[in-house]
Amino acid sequence: MGDEELLRYSRHILLPELGIEGQDKLLHSRVLILGLGGLGSPVALYLASSGVGELTLVDHDTVDLTNLQRQIAHDSQSLGLTKVSSAKARIQCLNPGVKVHTHAVRASSELLAQWLEDIDLVVDCCDNFASRHMLNRVCLEKKIPWIFAGAVSMDAQMSVFDPRVPHSPCFACLFPPDLSPEEVNCASLGVLAPLVGVVGALQALEALKVLAGVGEPLVARLLMLEARQMRFSEMRLKRQHNCVVCAEHV
Questions:
Q1: Please, are residues 162 and 213 in contact by the beta-carbon 8 Å criterion?
Q2: Architecture of the structural domain at 3-249
Q3: Helix or strand holding residue 195 (H, E)
Q4: Is beta strand 221-226 parallel, antiparallel or unpaired with respect to 231-236?
């Protein structure tokens, strides 16, 4: 770590839980972010500013005017650009030391399997259950931890799924593929802009904890936020013995 990095990350290095060793782990970490919208924007910016060494950005969409209310990685000059190229430009301005790889395509199981070959952690910032179930299966196969979150209207939830942890549940234990709830998104119900910022920041926080081995990540716990009354609640999760997904990988 050079003098410039020591200065840039000095507030991290001062933390006894992190220090130089923890920051060095972040500098050598590789994270894939699936979705560069309301959640993916703060995730990407905070991971970049925190010194995560390599970021792989995946999103097939382009920036439009309705995104700018909450997707803070993009601005009026980004309209019409792919979200991954817009986010990459913002990241490079924020921290040019971070390597950024982009994929402006819709993710598939085959593509995810390729992209995750050299990845330490995935942050799920997409907005549909089909993509999350696909990600869950690939991460289980490759033993890669991932961070789930969803936010709509004034409600949000998040958890960490880590196949490396014994008896950790998987996403399908919480949302069985054949019983997944009805899809809702901000295009139909709306979302209060700072909510995705709060939840994305929490995802970034959990990502840094997992990568650096700091604290107790949200493994086997579902964190829920009801923003109308600003109330957080938590539910313990257990691996389901009849889960058709993670049972294959026990």
A1: no
A2: 3-Layer(aba) Sandwich (3.40)
A3: helix 193-212
A4: antiparallel
Kindly list the distances between the CA atom of residue 172 and the CA atoms of 9, 58, 180, in Å, as whole numbers in the listed order: 37, 22, 9
Q: Please say whether the dihedral angle defined by the alpha carbons of residues 161, 231, 191 and 178, taken in this order, is positive or negative.
A: positive
The residue with tokens 């994929």 is 103
pLDDT at 15: 96
Dist. CA 23–CA 29, nearest whole Å: 10
Predicted confidence at residue 183, as pLDDT, reads 65
User: What are the tens digits of pLDDT across the range 23-64?
Assistant: 999 999 999 999 999 999 999 999 999 999 999 999 999 999
Task: Report how far residue 202's alpha carbon sits from residue 199's, in angstroms, rounded to the nearest whole number.
Answer: 5
Residues in the chain where the model's pLDDT stays below 50: none
Helix (H, G, I), strand (E, B) or coil at 226: strand
pTM of the model: 0.95
Q: How far apart are CA 106 and CA 52, in angstroms?
A: 24
